From TrEMBL:
Keywords: Hydrolase, Protein phosphatase
SMART domains hit by this protein: LMWPc (SM00226)
Gene that produces this protein: ywlE
Catalytic site: 8, 14, 129
Coiled-coil boundaries: none
Record-annotated Phosphotyrosine protein phosphatase I domain positions: 2-155
Protein name per UniProt: Low molecular weight protein-tyrosine-phosphatase YwlE
Superkingdom of source: Bacteria
Protein's UniProt keywords contain Cell cycle: no
EC number: 3.1.3.48
GO molecular function, a single term: protein tyrosine phosphatase activity
Family annotation (CDD domains): LMWPAP
Length: 161
């Protein structure tokens, strides 16, 4: 089993949407065996649910229900050790994790960095946080995550995961 950990700040918006989209596609459309995603936040309040706007965005756009999500911090349940690949939403999240767990360096990237083949570009490697914004920003974020996750799944298939 290959475990992918998506990380954002509070584990209520971006990373639960990414986890929900990834697992929905892998279990449904793509049938990618032996790969599952989970999520956490660098400063999450354990037990918080997914943001209602995040829930609505993925439900309306993709028919995905993340209403049962409960936030976790990256330190819970040895999540970093359990992960084979850690994909952060921002370079800042990546730096925070590496400052605490430098041995994770070989398995951590931003999501954009990983799907682009680790190429540095002029484009930001961050997935913008919709927290505190309107429903359209959540939908825009969900669409961006779906696009990146489709690329991620293609990459994993090529790698034989």
């Amino acid at each position: 089993m290959k475990n992918i950990l998506f990380v954002c700040t509070g584990n209520t918006c971006r990373s639960p949407m990414a986890e929900g989209i990834f697992n929905h596609v892998v279990l449904g459309e793509e049938k990618l065996e032996g790969v599952r995603a989970f999520s956490a936040g660098v400063s999450a309040f354990s037990g918080d649910g997914a943001n209602p706007k995040a829930q609505k965005a993925v439900k309306e756009l993709f028919g995905i229900d993340i209403s049962g999500h409960k936030a976790k911090t990256i330190g819970e349940e040895d999540l970093i050790k359990k992960a084979d690949i850690i994909l952060t939403m921002t370079e800042g999240h990546k730096k925070i994790i590496l400052s605490v767990v430098p041995e994770a360096e070989s398995k951590i990237w931003t999501l954009k960095e990983y799907v682009s083949g680790y190429k540095k570009t002029d484009e930001s490697l961050d997935v913008q946080d919709p927290y505190g914004m309107g429903e359209e920003e959540y939908k825009s974020c969900a669409k961006e995550l779906k696009h990146l996750i489709d690329e991620l799944i293609e990459k994993l298939k090529k790698e034989g995961s």
